[in-house]
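I am writing to request your help with a piece of structural work I have in hand. The matter concerns a single protein, recorded as an amino acid sequence and a row of backbone structure tokens. Could you please explain, in whatever detail you think fit, how the structure tokens follow from the sequence? Thank you for your consideration; the sequence and its tokens are set out here:
>
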Amino acid sequence: METILRGPSNEVTIGPDLPTVIIGERINPTGRKVFSAELQAGNLERVGRDAQAQADAGAMVLDVNVGAAGVDEVALLPRAVQIVQDTIDLPVCIDSPNPDALAAALKVAKGRVLVNSVNGETEKLKAVLPLVAEYGAAVIALCMDDHGIPETPEARLAVAENILKQAQAHGIAADSILFDPLTLAVGADHRAGVTACETTRLIRAKLGCNLTAGASNASHGMPERELLNTVLLTLLIQAGVNAPISNPLVNGLAVRAVDLMLGRDEWGMSYIQTYRAKAAREAAKG
């Protein structure tokens, strides 16, 4: 099963046997005080720079999130999406919990976008799925519902099955959904990584759908966070996640290393190209 996204003219295909597609996470104010302050002031100058830097580092889709405190997302999210697509020819992942902001951004986005996100909550399904269907988008679906995040892989699979059923009722095919198994903090539950990986395997085996995940969620509160993020990212990709949301400037080379070791990078060319790009960035810093 393949999921196809498009930028203004560029096309990206996500599939089980294809190289991993990195969804660049950097255009997001979470944990970035300076960027948050800029967004609150209506300053979007950083958006284009972050888009270009992530593309240079190997991102193939760019997540766009402007959800800082006090920001009018309905006004600002479409502007950010336009800046990204004027800067780089990549598909965008429109990231907001606000359906009105999603709709405003979908109206201006070029190509076939990814919506981030829907989940199994009744109201969320009612608000987001019609938008996804109307604009012919793809969508990230989180394995949680009105009862919260299930503890077991089997219960998360059941949530995924319900979301798929509801999506199909809106004319949204399985290949338009990227399921997120949900990575929780290992500091609170040492088996959180295992649960995410097992959920990934179940969804791939039972539903055949493509998957995304944000590996950085798991390392909150722990030392050497980037080490933990990279290790979990590697395990998730091996389990079946093929479009992770991550920082390509930090994890891009590791992702290409996983692809190489899984036989998805002929002659190691993508790994070598990513290594050279990383080396050039580091040299430019002096």
